[in-house]
Amino acid sequence: xxxxxxxxxxxxxxxxxxxxxxxxxxxxxxxxxxxxxxxxxxxxxxxxxxxxxxxxxxxxxxxxxxxxxxxxxxxxxxxxxxxxxxxxxxxxxxxxxxxxxxxxxxxxxxxxxxxxxxxxxxxxxxxxxxxxxxxxxxxxxxxxxxxxxxxxxxxxxxxxxxxxxxxxxxxxxxxxx
Length: 177
Prior knowledge:
Blueprint: H1 4-10, H2 15-37, H3 40-51, H4 55-79, H5 85-91, H6 96-131, H7 138-147, H8 151-176
Helix pairs in contact: 1-2, 2-4, 3-4, 4-6, 5-6, 6-7, 6-8, 7-8
C-alpha cells in the first residue's frame, strides 16, 4: 500500500480527489482479498445450492475467485512499476486515468497477459475438479467414465483436458510474442 505522502502528492492540492482515490484503493484491496480468500470449489458448492445444478454457478464461482486473484496481481504490477513515465504524464498536466491508460497499461500489458493466461489454464483444470460436483463438464464426464469403469474414455478425456491446457499455453506464448 503506498504511504499517504505518496498519495497526497500525486494529484496536487485537490484533497477531495485524493481522499476519493484512497477510499477506492482501500475498498478494492478489501474486495480483492475477500474474493480470492474463498476457494472456488466452496463458492461452486454454495452457488450450486443457491442456483441449482446450473453450469453458470460453476462459471460464476471461478469468475469471482479469479477476479480477486487477477485484481491483486494487477494492482501489484501497477504499484511495483518503477517507470517514470506515469509521473511525467501527471507532471505535464495529465489526469490519473490518462496517465494510467497511456503509460501503465502498455508497460504492464505483457505481464498481465501472462497472469490472465495462467489463470485461464488454472480454470480449465479447476473446472475438471468442480465438474465432479455434478455439473456437466469435463470433470463430470471423467467421473461418469470412472463410475462406468470405462477407463479408455476416462484416459481420453484426461488427455483432452491436458491438450486444452497445452493449447492455451501455446496461444499464450503466441499472443505475448
